[in-house]
Structures are given as structure tokens and as C-alpha cells.
Design a protein that fits this description.
By secondary structure, this protein is α/β, with parallel strands linked by helices. The protein has helices at 52-59, 81-84, 103-112, 120-126, 142-154, 172-187, 199-205, 223-227, 245-251, 274-286, 301-309, and strands spanning 14-23, 26-36, 41-45, 67-72, 88-91, 160-164, 191-196, 208-213, 216-221, 233-238, 257-262, 265-270, 292-297. The chain has a six-stranded mixed beta sheet, sandwiched between helices. Strands 11-12-10-13 form a four-stranded antiparallel beta sheet, with helices on one face. The protein has a three-stranded antiparallel beta sheet with strand order 2-1-4, with helices on one face. The site of adenosine-5'-triphosphate has 11 residues, from β2 and α1.
């Protein structure tokens, strides 16, 4: 799929510094800093009410921040919205579509507003919308409405696409079709910003992740960078109680730590990989220890999220 995003411009796609947005006494954004690189997928994660949708809506020019600076494709979304809007695609969580409009008509209408739209029929086909093209929006299933919103966001070949929870409520097949489309957009040089509650979605798709909590970005980086945080991967095994931990620690690679949280149950942290596993089993063999129930668990984005926000990712 060819899009207009193939020639990335200079500078980040989004640069937010110290964004503040208040609704009466409630502060939705509390000094939010966010940089979104071009031609990559950035996932914005956060618990309910963290400020994800508010951030995206500010980027789209739907609301004006009370303080801070915001540039999207180098433009101010509020004062330069007319120049910005044709270059971005927006998929909202819900609403914004006339209930009586038919899916195919809507797609063709939006395609006509752009100079180099995607092939409408091909897009409808791949998102499973071909069979419901004549169905009014209000009669589409929730998943079909969701996929139509995605199609409307990308049909104009935007440089930058905002997808607010793009797979919420979709069945696994539609979810994978959405993921494939996002990967293709990125391959074509499009910048994608998506909010999600699904950790697997962020791990599958995102080049970069920003974790938002209480109106601020509290951590950011590649998924691998975030997972390399202070709490590391864990290898556990069982053996006879009271093993010589001093000797075991001495055998482990630098940066690893061994402990016996409960008698006979051992926990080793560090860079859990084939080398560490081989070291531990070799040490056990040397010391006549039959290590039982060996498990390894890599530190996931979900663990990082929990540690940072104290909250489960899913609502
Ligand atoms: N129009 C509004 N009027 C009043 N408060 C609002 C409005 N929009 C958002 N808020 C509040 O601002 C905060 C941030 O909301 P926002 O929708 O950005 O969070 P979110 O991270 O997208 O949450 P969710 O994961 O539930 O979609 C919340 O406390 C919310 O109640």
C-alpha cells in the first residue's frame, strides 16, 4: 500500500512539552511531555482516566491545551488546524459518524476529499467491510463500526494516523487484520500513534511506548528498553533447602542475584537467557543438587506497567 507518508519530513511527528489541560477542578493533562518519531508506531498506554484520549484529541486539534506547547507535523493543531487536518487520519473511540450513512458511501466520500486516496474497494475488502457496504452505520455491528472508523482514518493516505483503542471489542480475526494494516502503514513510512489497553498489542506493534499516568508521561522508550528496568527477569527452581547461596552467586554472571525466599525455593534475577540457565544447571550438577520445577519468566511490558502505575492495564 502506498501512502503519502513515504517521505518523512524533518523533526518529530509530535512534540508536546509541558501540556496542561483542565476540566474545571480536574486536571486531565498535568505537564505532559511526549515526542513521537516519524515513520514508526508509538503506543500510548495508561490506566483509565490517565489522559490518553485528551492527549490524542489535543494533537488532532479538537481541544486547546491550557498551557504548554504542541507541534504536530511541525504545526500548531489549534491555530494551523486547516493545514494539518488533510495530513492526518483520525480514528476516534466512538462517534463522529452520521448514523444513517452507508459504509461504502462514507468511505467514497472521505476518499474524494483527498488527492491520492487508497483504493476504497480493496480497503473495504481487507477490513471485512465489503459485504456491509450498503448497511447504514447505525445497523453495523460494533466490530464493523470499529473497522469502518479505521478505514476512514487511513483512506486518505495520511502522513500521521491517530488510532484510539483501534481493536477494542474486535474478534481475533479483525484484530489481526487491524495489526496487519498498522504494520503496512509503518512499512509505507506512515507515523502511527495508537492508544491501547492491550499489552500484547503494544508488544506486537509498537516501536516506542509512552506510559501515561495522571496526566504525565511517566516512562517512555522502546518496549525492550522499558523491560530492561530495575525489576528484571526471573529464573526459579526448587531444590533441597539451605543451598550455598554464596557459592551460587559467585558462579552467576555479573548483574544476577540469587535468593531463597522460602526454604527450598530459589529465585535468580538478572538477564534470564540460555547462558544463565546453563550456569545454574551446571552449578547444581557440581553440587549434587537435583533442581526441580525450573521456570523462567521474562519481564514483560505488563510488569513494567504494573510497577510504574500500580494498576492493571486492562480496565
Ligand atoms: N470533557 C471532559 N469533561 C470533564 N472531564 C473530562 C473530559 N474529558 C476527559 N475528562 C477527564 O480527564 C481525565 C483524562 O481523561 P482521558 O479520557 O484523556 O483518559 P484516558 O486515559 O483516555 O482514559 P480511558 O482509558 O478510560 O479512555 C479523566 O479524569 C476524565 O474524567
Amino acid at each position: 500500500m502506498q501512502t503519502a507518508g513515504g517521505t518523512p519530513g524533518a523533526g518529530p511527528a509530535v512534540e508536546a512539552v509541558g501540556l496542561v489541560k483542565r476540566y474545571g477542578a480536574r486536571t486531565a493533562l498535568n505537564g505532559l511531555d511526549l515526542t513521537v518519531p516519524r515513520a514508526a508506531v508509538t503506543a500510548v498506554l495508561g490506566p483509565n482516566g490517565a489522559g490518553k484520549t485528551t492527549t490524542v484529541e489535543a494533537c488532532e486539534g479538537y481541544l486547546a491545551p491550557d498551557a504548554g506547547s504542541l507541534r504536530v507535523l511541525g504545526l500548531d493543531p489549534v491555530t494551523q488546524g486547516a493545514a494539518l487536518r488533510p495530513r492526518i487520519g483520525v480514528m476516534l473511540q466512538s462517534g463522529g459518524i452520521y448514523p444513517g450513512a452507508r459504509a461504502a458511501e462514507m468511505l467514497r466520500h472521505v476518499a474524494r476529499l483527498h488527492a491520492h486516496p487508497l483504493d476504497v474497494d480493496a480497503l473495504a475488502e481487507r477490513l471485512g467491510l465489503a459485504s456491509c457496504g450498503r448497511t447504514p452505520y447505525r445497523r453495523l455491528s460494533g466490530g464493523q463500526q470499529q473497522r469502518l472508523a479505521l478505514a476512514l482514518a487511513v483512506v486518505g493516505r495520511p502522513e500521521l494516523v491517530f488510532l484510539d483503542e483501534p481493536t477494542a471489542g474486535l474478534d481475533p480475526q479483525a484484530r489481526h487484520a487491524t495489526w496487519d494494516l498498522v504494520r503496512e502503514l509503518r512499512a509505507d513510512g506512515v507515523t502511527v500513534v495508537l492508544t491501547t489497553h492491550h499489552m500484547d498489542e503494544a508488544e506486537e506493534l509498537a516501536d516506542r511506548v509512552a506510559i501515561v499516568d495522571a496526566g504525565r508521561v511517566i516512562a517512555g522508550g522502546t518496549p525492550a528498553e522499558l523491560c530492561r528496568g530495575p525489576a528484571s527477569d526471573v529464573l526459579r527452581f526448587s531444590g533441597r533447602p539451605g543451598l550455598d547461596l554464596v557459592s551460587l552467586r559467585a558462579a552467576l554472571p555479573q548483574g544476577s542475584e540469587a535468593s531463597e525466599p522460602t526454604p527450598g525455593s530459589y529465585r535468580i534475577t538478572g538477564d534470564v537467557g540460555p547462558r544463565l540457565l546453563a550456569t545454574v544447571t551446571a552449578w547444581c550438577a557440581q553440587h549434587g543438587v537435583l533442581a526441580d520445577r525450573i521456570t523462567t519468566r521474562r519481564h514483560t511490558l505488563e510488569d513494567v506497567f504494573l510497577e510504574l502505575t500500580g494498576k492493571e492495564l486492562r480496565p
